Fold this sequence. Notes:
Order of helices and strands: HHEEH
Number of helices: 3
Number of domains: 1
Helix content: 55-70%
Strand order of the largest sheet: 1-2
Amino acid sequence: xxxDAKFTKQLISFVIVLIEFFLGVRxxxxxxxxxxxxxxxxxxxxITSPLSGPFSGMFPSSVSSGMSEIEFxxxxxMLMYAFFAYILIYLVNMLERSKPYMPNx
Length: 105
């Protein structure tokens, strides 16, 4: 099986875009104080809970007017996931460059 750096980088990018999208929707739902009993909101919180869990409690959540909340820990998690993806893509690029040159014959 051959190592395909382009596919690997695309896969990493796709996964990080999904993670960032779901966490971004979570932050937005918290920001607008979405009704937590709504099925979509419950589903979104259930899906993103494992992703935001490692960062929960890192920073205090800022509650503004009424029930609106800014989850700084989730925003920090988004930054960390993006940084992690950047590091992975950088490592894939290094592996790709370290392959010996094999001219086509």
